[in-house]
Amino acid sequence: MNLLENIREAFRSIRSNLLRTVLTALIVSIGLFALVGILTSIDAMKNSLNATFASLGSNSFEIRAKGYNNRSRHGGVQGKQYPALTLLQARQYKAQLGTEAEVGVSAFISGATELKANGEKTNPNMQVMAGDENYLRIQGYNLAQGRSFSQNELTRGANVAIVGDEIREKLFPRQTPVGQYVTALGRRFLIVGLLAPSGTTMGGGGADRLALLPLETGNQLPRAGALTYALKTASTRPALLPYLLDQATGIMRNVRHDRLGQADSFEIESSDSLAKTLDELSGKMRVGGGIIAFITLLGASIALMNIMLVSVTERTREIGVRKALGATAVQIRQQFLIEAIVICVLGGALGIGLGVLGGNGVALLIGSGSFYVPWFWMLVGLVICVSVGLLSGSYPAGKAAALDPIESLRYE
């Protein structure tokens, strides 16, 4: 028996025991589905977030007050809370940094806001932000309709707003929102611009659920506590980023009156640091997902070995006939190994396909907007299929090869 004949024999055996083969292949496919699905979803979400970081610019960084509104505890001790970054400090930083980089100042107003217009209202999950003339450009948001804030509106704090696409769909379906009025946080705002759709990001609304106000307008809104402002600094020359980070640290320490030897009362976060954090998190998720998938595949390999042992027992007489006709122990071993590998590959192909679809489905629900094809994990899955087939089929194949032909022919 040559290799091709052994493969044909494997398929003949599979067809003669179709139900058992299908059930065994399904066990293997579940294991591969878990492995490829988990890893695909992780990589798809990572790619989506990397694209988001790239759109924000790799040559930018954000400055926020350290520990502001921090309620987390570390080892039973609450983290130190520093004073909020004020509008005066933000303006001083912007003025002192000069023209070497572009600075955008923003303030978070509300993250659970309901907007109303024309008797309709949005879900109470819209985000209201206040920003200066550079905010949209630095954040990478584009206008689909209308215009940005004028200098006069920014200076006097006019009641104007730029809204996201989801707000338009809820309040102004089949019409332009520009020139219409919307009510939020007890005030009535004239819509002067509409943001281009951005899609969701990790379950959030991105720019689609955003209502942007002029910075001075946000500062005038009634609130329970003082606003904390954020600064985003960007440069058109990536080579300047290390220099700008040093400059920003020195200026902010001076603006915030941090004494010599005292820790920074602010934190600087660049897109590079976010990418590193994401890599660390995705690495831990891969390890966890790999452990879960390994346990599933271990169960699948044990089930396959059991099925192959049953197959050897049922075909003992057939093995005796083949040996009597001249088949060697190597050929018998090869026959059963190929049969185990074929079952694994059939089940694995189904599991890999379902894993790719399932992983992208999970990523889509969480917020990834693109379809990701994990060629590497598909290749790894195929290698695992063959490996599981070899490991699970080795013992049954060895047992079949060691059978005595005379005793096998007598077997009933």
Automatic annotation (TrEMBL):
Domain ABC3 transporter permease C-terminal: 291-404
A UniProt-annotated Pfam family: MacB_PCD
GO CC terms of this entry: plasma membrane
Membrane-spanning parts: 21-42, 291-313, 340-366, 372-391
Family: Belongs to the ABC-4 integral membrane protein family.
UniProt keyword list: Cell membrane, Membrane, Transmembrane, Transmembrane helix
Protein name listed in UniProt: ABC transporter
Signal peptide annotation: none
Its membrane topology: Multi-pass membrane protein
Subcellular location: Cell membrane
Residue ranges of domain MacB-like periplasmic core in the record: 21-220
Gene Ontology molecular function: transmembrane transporter activity
